[in-house]
Structures are given as structure tokens and as C-alpha cells.
Amino acid sequence: MFAQNYTLELIFSAIITMAVILIAIRIYLNIINKPSGITKPDWMSDSDFEDKFGKRK
């Protein structure tokens, strides 16, 4: 029944399409989850930072 309804080319095409979609989603998630790199400025002292933004854990 499986061989009668689906051709080998159709199955191969579906597998390649699914792989391309999954790779694209993975690349997108890696891009949006990249750390931003924002840090405390050098000119701000630790006590000023704590006063302004609260104690950091």
C-alpha cells in the first residue's frame, strides 16, 4: 500500500524539505538567542550601579 501511493521522489523531496525547514528554524533561534554583550560602563562605579539598579545577584 505504501509503495502504491507514494513514489521514491516524493518521499525524498519531503525529507529534504523538512530538513531545510528545520535547519532554517535552528539558525533563526541561534541568531535571536545570541547574547547582546551589553555590560556596565567603565565610567560607572559599582556603588553607583547598585544605587541606580539595585543589588545584583
Give the overall silhouette: rod-shaped
Strand share of the residues?
under 5%
- Mean pLDDT, rounded to whole units? 80
Note the main sheet: none
Unreliable residue runs: none
Number of helices: 3
Kindly state the percentage of residues in helix. Answer: 55-70%
SSE class:
mainly alpha
Order of helices and strands: HHH
How many angstroms does the end-to-end distance come to? 62 Å
Radius of gyration: 25 Å
What is the number of strand segments? 0
Verbal overview:
The longest helix is centred in the middle third of the chain and has 25 residues, at about 10-30. Helices cover about 65% and strands about 0% of the residues. It contains three helices and no strands. The model has no long low-confidence stretch (mean pLDDT about 80). The chain has helices at about 1-5, 10-30, 45-55. The chain has about 55 residues and is mainly α.
Keywords:
57 residues, mainly alpha, single chain
Describe the secondary-structure layout:
Elements (H helix, E strand, L loop, with lengths): L1 H4 L2 H25 L13 H8 L4
